[in-house]
Inverse folding.
């Protein structure tokens, strides 16, 4: 059922936020450090573990798969928006650094394609 996917997502989100807050405090920063990333990784590992270890019904597997599939693109989109907003607030140097990184990444595409074909 879809409800199991929601429950698994909520569990991973709570654990990720708690671990992110603890990591931030250990470093000495009053912020959540990587909580969403931790939640995403936990969601991936737990959904694969549940699929392999337990004989879940097809409907339950589809619910878990649905929420696993929908969660990651939403979080990536939210993070990308925050990065763009931060770059706009950071001024010209932040935009220049981002543009250079994208340009260099484009230059690496032919090299990576050749390496991938081998």
């Amino acid at each position: 059922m879809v409800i199991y996917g929601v429950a698994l997502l909520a569990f991973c989100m709570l654990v990720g936020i708690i671990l992110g807050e603890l990591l931030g405090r250990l470093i000495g920063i009053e912020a959540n450090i990587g909580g969403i990333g931790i939640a995403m990784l936990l969601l991936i590992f737990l959904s694969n573990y549940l699929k392999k270890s337990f004989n879940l019904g097809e409907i339950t597997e589809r619910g878990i798969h649905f929420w696993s599939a929908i969660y990651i693109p939403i979080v990536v989109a939210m993070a990308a928006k925050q990065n763009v907003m931060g770059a706009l607030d950071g001024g010209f140097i932040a935009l220049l650094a981002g543009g250079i990184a994208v340009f260099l990444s484009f230059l690496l595409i032919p090299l990576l394609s050749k390496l991938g074909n081998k």
Remarks:
- The chain has one domain: 2-117.
